[in-house]
Design a protein that fits this description.
The complex is a heterodimer of chains A (364) and B (686). With 364 residues, chain A is α/β, with parallel strands linked by helices. Chain A has helices at residues 7-26, 66-88, 94-100, 112-126, 200-208, 211-214, 228-240, 253-263, 273-276, 288-293, 303-313, 321-333, 349-362; strands spanning 32-36, 43-46, 51-54, 58-62, 92-93, 135-136, 143-145, 148-153, 159-163, 173-174, 184-189, 193-197, 217-221, 245-248, 282-285, 299-300, 335-336. Chain A has a six-stranded mixed sheet. A three-stranded antiparallel sheet of chain A has the order 9-8-11, with no helix packed on it. Chain A has a two-stranded antiparallel sheet with strand order 1-4. In chain B, helix 8 packs across helix 11 (294-304). With 686 residues, chain B is of the alpha+beta class. Chain B has helices spanning 3-10, 16-22, 24-27, 32-53, 87-95, 117-128, 192-202, 243-252, 258-265, 271-280, 294-304, 330-340, 398-404, 451-503, 511-518, 629-643; strands spanning 59-68, 73-80, 132-137, 144-152, 157-166, 174-182, 207-211, 217-220, 345-350, 354-356, 359-369, 380-385, 388-390, 426-434, 520-530, 535-545, 550-557, 565-567, 574-577, 580-588, 593-601, 613-616, 621-622, 625-626. The chains are: A alpha/beta (364), B alpha+beta (686). At the A-B interface, helix 1 and helix 2 of A face helix 14 and helix 15 of B. The complex binds adenosine-5'-diphosphate and magnesium ion. Magnesium ion is lined by residues 42, 45-46, 100, 111, 114, 116-117 of chain B.
Chain lengths: 364, 686
């Protein structure tokens, strides 16, 4: 489904949302907006797509309470704004839209979060992408290093050929917010797999140690919870180049969630999971048993950590045996460890011992 | 024997200064901070008492300045506009311990609580060696007396020096004193500032200006021109008398018959009771009181206390009159509290006077709640006895215990385990007015336990708590109503317009969806002070946002008891009970609005800022409260109680829940007006 929509399709989809509200008023009913429930209770595995998607549970946001009515009004303002951007050939960031909403009177947003959520709501009900809405995220994309060649269309509309090893500095190739075919095309590569890394410190360590060349791989810095464009580019590379993706994160409950969002889809964006998730990706570490096996320096789990782990136990994305085991083990040990705790054994330990061992276990 | 009496008895053997030194603690001079507060308190209490007696609105100035930083020497100046003290009395007032009025009359006065102003003069002399400077002007003399007063502690006599007459310019009468003493000025809960602030709360008729040692001015303005009611001295009641006192009354009596003695000397003793008292104590009626033996006096006391009985019953005595009490009264507590604490909601409660062990007393409470106060700390407790702030020993005081005994959680305050001082953005005031305030110790800072007083205080708290809960519920409801109005007046029309313009279609009609959304009758009430007419205007607008015609009885509370009158009442209506007015609205058509409006005359600005609206009817009215018929019943009962003689005891309420609909009893209650301040069932909201 997540096919790109034409301008006309986008507008029609948006107008359908407006229609719902208008028709209800004409019928003498409070205006409404119907959308799927966006919690972990309403995501299910789509076997065909291999990712988690929203289920059938719908909520009807109706204008009988002030809060919901304001949401509807805001949605109308956002739709009007999107239409004017489409017509004028402009785009704006979500943050810009938030500030622009200052002029929307009663429809103004109270927080940036509110405007981000509403943009997502509209994506969900219209089955469009925010790129179709000309809305850009504030989040910056990942950086990448490795022997990959792609071309990117620059501001002047010209294609630029870039090799992510030879044409870039130490910080790597910066992934733009739009990584769709109209913006980026993949040309060729000479790597065996892609490794996604949570922290900048670890990314830089692997770069400095020449890990990408020694192990013939591409390194990708996730910057914590990965942005949509980061997940999308991983997905495209893995699909179009048929490359395995391994994910190297801290060993804590939050990293487990990062992995789930990469591999199975995030709850917030389950409407476009098939477009963002890389079901073939593998969790490399830090695992709960690594903490014990490598005797890593660790911290006690906080109350929040424990709550998060318990929530994960009932999250359908972690339903498989391996994850249940990992989560329970972490709860039992009561510890978490950072990627960089591997430095306990020296700066080269990660590239010379830990990663080779882990990769070998995965058969890479 | 009280400490003062002890002092009087002792003064011949010991130098008074020595006694003073030993008993500093009881007298309020034990620490340098407390000595300062005590000094200010003695002078200010006197000023307030004198003004009250002379029916003058007090203007009081208190100034504290540093003289010598190192030695903790401060100068205290207090000036009032009271009647002044005649030249001949000055030496006695300031130079003779125990000269005061407090031992003579049984009535409520501030003076009863301290050692008197002479104690201040003495403390000053003991710590600095200096005399106290006094200036006094009485209205009939052209000039003021100026004199320095020192003490001859052996003879309990004043030593006057520098006596002179000075010109006071415009000022017609008043008193000024200036004294130096070893003392420390502190801020906080126990400070001169706090004492004056509390004093101004319970004396809203006073204007108090305080200049602190840094020269900073704190001004508590007068918020009412109404002076506290005149208090009368009453005769002692047999139930409140002690042996020593009875002995003295007998031996000093010039009456020739026991029965006349009993009737004339005591309150609550009828001719019949006098005879019966004689009978049970085995005294001849024609006996001379003076001639009673110690044993006979004891027998009489036993009769007083009901230990000697007539046919198994103690002699029936009437309650003492309560005219000797001077409560602050609800409206003034409201004003006093809101002038020093900046917050919107105040609820108050003045209980009817009651009697404990022959002593008339009355409990008043007030609670102020809202923004501007810290939410996560224990509430501020403001304790008063006979309008005098109690600032020390909070924990051991009956008034604090009464607060702690209430489960405040049910009224919207935080309280760990439902006990102790509650937490929240609030301050609670408790005032005990009594002819005989019982303290835990001579320091006179905490009230001692007394079941009857405790019970009254608790009842008052519960009543007030209900006021708070009602306010909070109302706030919530009002918020809800406001939201609904914003929804239908602003948001829905905006949605209709925007969706129409995006679709390039005509704006649809909203009436039907608005009715669906609201499906309720809504009341909007405003209570505003009208500067031009000097009246409080009340408007209640009712909108029927349902699809059917409706009928209701709408009711409001109004300060009838406080002397207001209702004018320009557009829809007429009728009196439902004291302070409750009702309008029967036969038909409210769908989509139509009805306005009830009236004005309240004979009130001051700020007396009445919020009106509670109630309804009787089957469908909810947003913005009004369903009439609690129990509450109405209670008001009627209280009215009846007020018109009956003073109740011995308040019976607990036990009224069955009335049915909800229109069919409930609407008969006109016969409610003769009463001028007594009593339970305010609605009047909590300010
Ligand atoms: N500021 C004042 N103005 C007028 N009279 C005063 C003033 N201060 C004291 N007095 C008179 O002096 C008397 C003695 O005062 P004090 O020693 O404080 O005892 P008490 O206050 O108990 O009467 C008072 O009862 C009052 O008659
Ligand atoms: Mg006094």
């Amino acid at each position: 489904m997540a096919e790109r929509k034409s301008i006309e399709e986008t507008k029609t989809a948006l107008h359908d949302v407006v229609r719902e509200m208008y028709d209800r008023i004409v019928k003498g009913e409070p205006p409404t907006m119907t959308l799927p429930v966006r919690t972990k209770n309403n995501i299910g595995f789509d076997a065909k797509l291999g990712v988690y998607k929203y289920g059938r549970k719908q909520t009807i946001r109706d204008a009988t309470s002030l809060g919901s009515a304001k949401q509807l009004l805001r949605a109308l303002h956002v739709i009007e704004f999107i239409e004017s951007m489409i017509d004028d050939g402009k785009s704006s960031t979500l943050r810009e839209m938030y500030y622009i909403s200052e002029g929307w009177g009663l429809g103004k947003f109270q927080s940036q979060n509110e405007s981000n959520n509403l943009a997502e709501d509209l994506e969900i009900v219209t089955r469009c992408l925010r790129e179709d809405f000309k809305l850009r995220p504030e989040e910056d994309g990942a950086r990448m290093i490795g022997n990959l060649t792609l071309r990117e269309r620059n501001r002047r509309g010209e294609w630029m050929r870039i090799n992510a090893r030879d044409d870039v500095g130490d910080s790597g190739y910066g992934v733009p917010y739009n990584v769709e075919a109209e913006k980026i095309e993949f040309l060729e590569h000479d790597v065996n797999f892609i490794m996604a890394i949570e922290t900048g410190g670890m990314f830089d360590r692997l770069v400095e140690n020449g890990f990408d060349e020694d192990f013939k791989c591409a390194l990708l810095h996730l910057k914590g919870q990965p942005a949509r464009s980061t997940r999308r580019i991983m997905k495209r590379m893995s699909e179009e180049w048929d490359l395995p993706v391994v994910v190297f994160l801290d060993g804590d409950p939050w990293s487990f969630r990062i992995f789930a969002s990469i591999a199975y889809g995030a709850i917030k964006t389950a409407h476009i999971s098939e477009y963002l998730a890389t079901p073939t990706s593998t969790y490399l570490g830090i695992t709960a048993d690594d903490i014990l096996a490598y005797d890593l320096p660790s911290d006690d789990l906080s109350k929040k950590d424990i709550e998060a782990l318990n929530a994960e136990l009932s999250d359908p994305r972690f339903a498989d045996g391996w994850w249940q085991e990992q989560i329970n083990m972490m709860l039992e040990v009561g510890k978490k460890a950072e990627q960089q705790s591997l430095a306990k054994y020296g700066l080269d330990f990660v590239t010379e011992t830990y990663l080779p061992e882990k990769l070998q276990a995965l058969g890479l | 024997m009280s400490i003062a009496e002890k002092m009087a008895a002792n003064q011949k053997q010991v130098a008074i200064s020595e006694f003073f030194e030993k008993n500093k603690h009881f007298l309020g001079f034990d620490t340098l901070n407390r000595a300062l507060i005590t000094a200010v308190k003695e002078a200010v209490d006197n000023a307030l008492d004198a003004c009250e007696e002379a029916r003058i609105l007090p203007d009081i100035i208190v100034k504290i300045s540093k003289l010598d930083n190192k030695k903790d020497i401060l100068q205290v100046e207090v000036e009032d506009n009271g009647p002044g003290i005649p030249r001949a009395s000055i030496a006695k007032v300031f130079g003779q311990l125990l000269f005061g009025s407090r031992f003579h009359a049984i009535r409520q006065s501030r003076g009863q609580q301290g050692i008197g102003i002479t104690g201040v003069v003495m403390y000053s002399q003991l710590t600095t060696g200096d005399p106290t400077h006094v200036e006094s002007k009485i209205a009939k003399e052209a000039t003021a007396v100026s004199v320095d007063i020192g003490l001859d502690t052996r003879k309990n006599k004043a030593i006057k020096s520098n006596q002179d007459r000075i010109d006071w310019g415009e000022k017609v009468h008043g008193l000024r004193i200036r004294t130096t003493m070893k003392a420390k000025y502190q801020r906080g809960r126990q400070s001169v500032w706090q004492y004056l602030r509390m004093t101004s709360i319970v004396n809203p008729h006073a204007d108090i200006l305080f200049i602190d040692p840094d020269g900073e001015k704190h001004h508590w303005q007068r918020v009412t021109e109404r002076l506290p009611g005149r208090v009368e001295a009453i005769k002692p009641h047999p139930k409140g008398i002690e042996l020593g006192q009875l002995q003295r009354l007998c031996s000093e009596s010039t009456e020739s018959r026991m029965t006349t003695f009993l009737r004339r000397t005591f309150s609550g003793v009828s001719q019949r009771a006098a005879k019966e008292l004689c009978e049970v104590s085995e005294l001849e009626e024609k006996l001379k009181p003076k001639s009673l033996s110690a044993q006979q006096v004891r027998a009489l006391l036993e009769a007083f206390q009901g230990e000697r009985q007539l046919k198994g019953k103690s002699v029936k005595l009437l309650n003492p009159p309560t005219s000797c009490l001077s409560p602050i009264e609800e409206l003034l507590i409201k004003k006093g509290l809101s002038k020093t604490i900046d917050s919107k909601f105040v609820t108050t409660m003045t209980r009817a006077p009651s009697v404990a062990q022959g002593n008339p007393f009355q409990v008043e409470v007030g609670l102020i709640f809202g923004e501007g106060m810290t939410a996560d700390k224990p509430v501020e407790i403001l304790r008063f006895a006979n309008r005098v702030p109690l600032m020390y020993q909070q924990g051991g005081c009956l008034l604090t215990k009464a607060i702690e005994s209430v489960d405040w959680r049910q009224y919207g305050l935080d309280q760990a385990g439902g006990r102790g001082v509650p937490k929240g953005p609030a301050a609670i005031l408790v005032h005990l007015a009594s002819t005989n305030v019982q303290f835990t110790s001579e320091a006179k800072e905490a009230l001692s336990d007394n079941e009857t007083v405790m019970e009254e205080a608790r009842k008052a708290m519960l009543e007030m708590g209900r006021g708070l809960r009602k306010h909070l519920e109302k706030q919530k409801k009002m918020g809800k109503t406001k939201e609904k109005f914003e929804l239908i007046n602003d948001i829905i029309p905006a949605i209709a317009e925007k969706s129409a313009s995006l679709l390039e279609l005509p704006v649809p009609d909203l009436a039907a969806s608005i009715t669906k959304i609201m499906s309720a009758v809504i009341a909007e009430t405003t209570t505003t002070w009208n500067k031009a007419t000097k009246q409080t205007d009340v408007h209640i607008t009712l909108y029927n946002y349902t699809s059917r015609a409706r009928s209701y009885t709408m009711l409001v509370n109004w300060p009838e008891r406080q002397g207001a009158s209702m004018v320009n009442n557009n829809l007429g209506g009728r009196k439902e009970a004291m302070g409750v007015w009702a309008w029967k609205l036969e038909t409210l058509q769908p989509g139509v609005q009805t306005v009830i409006s009236y004005s309240l005359a004979d009130l001051e600005k700020g007396d009445w800022n919020e009106t509670d609206v109630f309804y009787r009817g089957s469908q909810e009215v947003i913005g009004a409260t369903k009439m609690d018929e129990k509450l109405l019943e209670e008001i009627r009962r209280q009215e009846e109680a007020l018109n009956a003689p003073l109740p011995e005891d308040d019976e607990p309420l036990d009224v069955n829940e009335s049915s909800d609909d229109e069919s409930v009893d609407e008969s006109e209650p016969n409610a003769p007006p009463s001028d007594t301040m009593q339970t305010t069932l609605f009047g909590g909201d300010y």
